[in-house]
Amino acid sequence: MLRFGIDLGGTKIELCALTGGQVVHRERVATPAADYGAIVEAIAGLVERAELALGERGSLGICTPGAISSQTGRIKNSNTLALNGEALDEDLAKRLGRDVRMENDANCFALSEAIDGAATGAPVVFGVILGTGVGGGIVVNGRCLVGCNAIAGEWGHIQLPYLDADDLPAPDCYCGRSACIETYLSGSGLRTEYVRQGGQPMAASEVARAAAEGDAVAKQALARYTQRLARGLSVVVNVLDPHVIVLGGGLSLIPELYGALPEELPKYVFSDHIATRVLPAVHGDSSGVRGAALLWE
User: Fold this and answer.
1) What is the CATH number of the domain that holds 166?
2) Is the pLDDT of residue 166 over 80?
3) What's the gap between Cα 137 and its chain centre?
């Protein structure tokens, strides 16, 4: 069966075609982010060109920032503002003459890694995106857990637990609250901690590189970041008790996290033993678009 996945981002739209789990076609175009009608046509064009090239009709899944409101059936909380309030799945279904399934990017990431990635075969998987923002998705027995409010897995907007003096003053979050996990664990959170420790402003990836090269200030900032990550994930483990936590996003590429987290998590999790594995994503940046295609698995 031919499955199309679409990763609808703020700057690019990517199509991936899967057959038997193998990628058989890819194409990217720029996102006309300010024009909703143009977004619909861009996605439709990608699908039509792929079907022409492959000579076969496929199912269609969409991965997009934001979520589908359980009240309105329309997109909410998307940072591509033209999508908010729109019924993208319904409009594409009409345009392309087929049913369309749609989930947010973190859910698709988690699904991809649960089906044939780092967490293959695990019954309960929590997928984490650590990047510009902090997202999460839950997969149980190979299916996305969305929740009645379509916010399952949104751990980035829980307050960071076990706040201490080093976490204060609590940073404000765009959601209107303060001390959200996202404000500490996004890329800007690591940059802020590095500056707070006495370093000069630099990208989060550069902080990680400096730490690996022995920079004492960067090592301290990264250690503090890892401890906060463990505190944030402890809430997930205490509530969900996943078999595997898969890390994705730019900050997931920091190798030191995977050695330090197994030592830090037991300090905060309510258990005498932690069997939960914390693993890097196998499919990397492709997890979202693969997960969108696998919504039809």
Assistant:
1) 3.30.420.40
2) yes
3) 7
Query: Is residue 76 included in any domain, yes or no?
Result: yes
CB 46 within 8 A of CB 13: yes
Contact 136, 129 (CB under 8 A): yes
Q: For residue 192, give the amino acid letter.
A: T
pLDDT per position as a tens digit, 17-28: 999 889 999 999
**The pLDDT of residue 76:** 87
- Burial of 72 by CB count in 10 Å (0-12 exposed, 13-18 middle, 19+ buried)? exposed
Which positions ≥6 away from 32 have C-beta within 8 Å?
A: 38, 39, 42
In this structure, are 43 and 178 located in the same domain? Answer: no
Residue 297 belongs to a domain: no
Helix, strand, coil % (nearest 5) of the chain? 45, 25, 35
Our separate counts of H helices and E strands in the chain read 9, 12
Q: Considering the entire predicted model, what is its pTM?
A: 0.92
Distances (CA, A) of 252 to 42, 106, 205, 259: 31, 14, 10, 12
DSSP reduced 3-state for 242: coil
Task: Note whether 78 and 66 are within 8 A (CB).
Answer: yes
CA distance 123 to 167: 35
Q: Copy the structure tokens of residue 41.
A: 């046509």
Tokens at 128, concatenated? 């984490």
* Tokens standing for residue 76: 């909410």
